[in-house]
Design brief:
α3 runs parallel beside α4 and α7 runs parallel beside α9. The chain is α/β, with parallel strands linked by helices.
Amino acid sequence: MKRRDFIKISGAAALATACAPKDSRSKPGMTGGKPGMTGGKPGMTGGLTDGPESMLIRENPRNGDRVSAIGFGCMRWPMIKDADGKDVIDQEAVNEMVDYAIAHGINYFDTSPAYLQGLSEKAAGDALSRHPRDSYYIATKLSNFGDRSKEASIQMYHDSFKQLKTDYFDYYLLHSIGRGGREAFNQRYVENGMIDFLLKEKAAGRIRNLGFSFHGSAKEFDGFMEMYDSGEMVWDFVQIEMNYVDWRHADGRRNANAEYLYAELDKREIPIVIMEPLLGGRLANVPEGIARQMKEREPDMSPASWAFRFCATYPRVLCALSGMTNMTPLKENVQTFGHFKPLTEEELEFLEKMAIQMKEYPLVNCTDCKYCMPCPWGVNIPGVFQHYNKAITDGTYAQSSAQKDYRKLKKAYLTSYDKAVETLRQADRCITCGECLSHCPQSIAIPRELHRIARYVEDLKQDRI
C-alpha cells in the first residue's frame, strides 16, 4: 500500500469527527472520564465547574485524550553541580516537581533527545515511571539535526523508549521543521525513509499521535499544510510558538505570526500544542512599565498568568507548555489553570498594546532553549543573552553617562555580569565561527548580538556611552 493511501485510511475517522478540544475540570489526581463539548471563538469555554485547584482539562477530539491545558516542558529541568563541577540534572527536584504536577492534574510532559544536551529524556523517564503509565501523556521528538541517516534516526527513536521507560509514545513530533522548507524536510525524513518507518510504528501502536513542531515563515508553513490538504500527510497535531507578542509581531521573515498559524490549523481542525507561551521567560519578567500596567488592571494576576490565559483562551489549543525550573512557577501555573478565566475581547486588546510596547525594548529574542550549546569556544551564549535581557526588563540597563544613577547602574551591570557568566565564557570570546547559527530556532544572528553586547560592556568600562 502506498504511503498516501495508508495515511488517507488511517486519518479518515479522525478527520470526520474533528472539532475544537472540549473543556472540563478534573480534581487533583483524577484521570479518565469524558467531558462535554465546546468550541468556537476566543473567550468561549464550556463544561467548567468550580472547585479548588481543579485542573482545566481539554479533550482531544481526535482520540478522546483528556489533556491538561498546561503541559510540563522538560527543556528546563533544574540543574546542580556534581562532584566534578559538571552541570547535571537535579533528579530529586525533578521527582518532586513531577509528583506535584501529576497530583494536581498536569498530565502532559514534553521532552526531546536534544534537550539539556541529551539529559532531559532520562530525567523525565526516571520521574514519570514512578507513576502509572495511564496517568500521563509523553511527547518526545525525532531531533535528527546532525546525523540524518536512517540508521542514526532509528537509533535515536529507540533510545527514547529506553530513556523514557515506555513502550509507546502518546505524542511524537518531527522536531523543528520549517526552515529550509520542503527540501530540508525531505532530507531529514523522506529520503532516508523515516516517514515510512514512523507510519509503520504508528500502525503498530508505538506512536499514538504523529505531528511536528514548527519554526519558520508563513510560506514554509503553507507547504506543510499543502501536504495535509493533498492527503500526503495527516498531521494528528502541530506544535507552534504562540504568545501575545508573536501573535502579530513575530519576525515575518524568520518566524510567522502565530495568528496566521493558528488560523490555518483551526480551519483544518488540527489540535494545537503551544511552545514558548512565555517567550523563554521574558513574558514572566516583563519590563517595569508593562508590569505596572498589568498590575493596575489585575492586582492579583502575575505577568505569566496573563500570558498563559492568552494561549488557553483560544479553543483549538489543546495544551500550552511551560518549562518550569522550580516549584514556584509550577504552583502558580496550577493556580492559573485551576481557576482559569478566558480573556475578554477588551483584555485581548490590552495585551496587544503590551505587545507593541514590548517590541520597543532592545531585547535579544532568546528563549534560553540552549540548542546553540555547547559553543566550541566556550561562550555561554544563552547566559550572556539572559543576563542582558534581565537588565533591560529590570530597568537596570545603563543607557547613557548622562543618565541618573549611571555610575550605580554601570557597576551593577558589570558586577552581575561577572557573577552570571564566567569571564572566559563571556560575549567577547566569540570568534564568529558561526557554528551556532543553524541550531537557533529563532534565527538570531548570534555572533552579531554577542559582539554588540561585548561592545556595550567595553563601552561601559571605558565610559563611552
